[in-house]
Amino acid sequence: MFTIKEASEKLNCPAHTIRFYDKEGLLPNIRRDDNGNRIFDKKDLDWIRLMTCFRATGMSIADLKKIVELALQGEATIGQRRAILEAHQEEIKRKQQVLNEAFEAVSQKLEVYNQIQKGNPEDRFLTYFDERP
Amino acid sequence: MFTIKEASEKLNCPAHTIRFYDKEGLLPNIRRDDNGNRIFDKKDLDWIRLMTCFRATGMSIADLKKIVELALQGEATIGQRRAILEAHQEEIKRKQQVLNEAFEAVSQKLEVYNQIQKGNPEDRFLTYFDERP
DNA sequence: CGTTGACTTAAAGTTTAGTTCAAGGTTTAT
DNA sequence: ATAAACCTTGAACTAAACTTTAAGTCAACG
């Protein structure tokens, strides 16, 4: 069992963010000790990890909440949960594409800078401000 | 030459966002017609595309502004610009990793749902709420 | 015994990146 | 000629996701 501080350190996630998620209903069934302090077990940490993983890839708190609510209703809602996850997976794919394109764009810019610093002025046309300042 | 509406359509980016970027200093040297309306040429569109590409991958307006300001100062600042782009490229790589991990996590969850719906209850232990509701 | 530090809450504040609004100018169509 | 369809500005507004603050409880240390 872990305190919120330990959980925070293990998850690399601020304690008040964990409290915030709890308040938002993203972490059901978090137990308390005699003083009313939250206590987390390994399973709680796994769940929080899942939540932060989804958050980090752009799923909104509202959608996370929806998943939690469906999960609490039991297996009858698995179809709906699956639909949400499949949509999110598509969203992840889209983001991956955007990142790949951006990586290419940055690489090209860096290549142009390299050429300029090597003294290949004929390659400057690829830059914007060096072309029409 | 294009009006802001045409630029907006070509870039798939709201006109007021383009104005906002202009106001923030992200689009230097945008010319105006006799009525004071902005007019964009192909090169302007390319530059805006670059800005939105960087934005879409998490670069802040403040950092974009920095790049623009450095670019306006000429080639002496290429080293600094390169440093910013290299840092951003690392950031992109980090984001790609996060997405890959999330994709895996979602795939696993979906696989668990599949098993449950196929009626393999022994696989339910992989889910959270079905285990400790 | 007092103070240090971790925990609690609710509520207010912050940040970022737009978006919308209000008020107005110009050109084109009917 | 008058309305529709553009464009302009600055300022106010919004939304999401925290983050900070304020006020308080509790246990341990010296």
UniProtKB/TrEMBL annotation, chains A, B:
Residue span(s) of domain HTH merR-type: 1-70
Keyword Cytoplasm appears in the UniProt entry: no
Keyword tags: DNA-binding
InterPro entries the UniProt entry points to: DNA-bd_dom_put_sf, MerR-type_HTH_dom, MerR_fam
SMART domains: HTH_MERR (SM00422)
Pfam families tied to this protein: MerR_1 (PF13411)
Key word DNA-binding present: yes
Protein name: MerR family transcriptional regulator
Organism field: Paenibacillus hodogayensis
